Amino acid sequence: MANGYCCSSAALLLEACAHVLHVLQERYLHLGPSLTTISISNTSCSGPLPPEWGSSTAWQKLTSLDLTYNSFTGAIPQLWVQSLAFPVLQKLYLTGNQLTGSLPSIWPLQLQLLQLVQNNFSGTLPSNGWPVQLQVLDVQLNRLTGSIPPELSELSQIQQLRLPDNNLTGSLSAAWGEPDAFPGGLQVACMI
Question: In the chain, what are the domains?
């Protein structure tokens, strides 16, 4: 204990993270109508994702939310993935956290990029509820099980599909091999 302070660097980091989330929520929520990007990556933030962010109407223009490489835990709040919560969200980065639970079966309608790499998601890949504009779906390094849903072949805008290092079975639908099925090209990583 020096100068009357008794805190470890880890405790200070957690306090700083909680402060950042609180400040963002309390002081900058009013900026929501003009805020398009939030990036709180690699800051050692921990705890559950704030569900109240999904019930706020302040994020009406938010197009990118990056919370990568922190220590967030728990499930993705249901309010986050409903189309009204983040109506124009195009990019959601949650890579490198400790998130758990099943993947939601519905996502924001405008979502184009979804990175959920290196978490602890379990259960199956949903067969429906994916946005038609989805271009990148990256769920590698989780604990997903079951078969690869054939409905993924209906995602005509998909350019990158990354599924390795899960416990998925089966193969991609025959539609994935059709000429001109993906005009923008397609990168697939399965290794199931």
Answer: 9-189 (3.80.10.10)
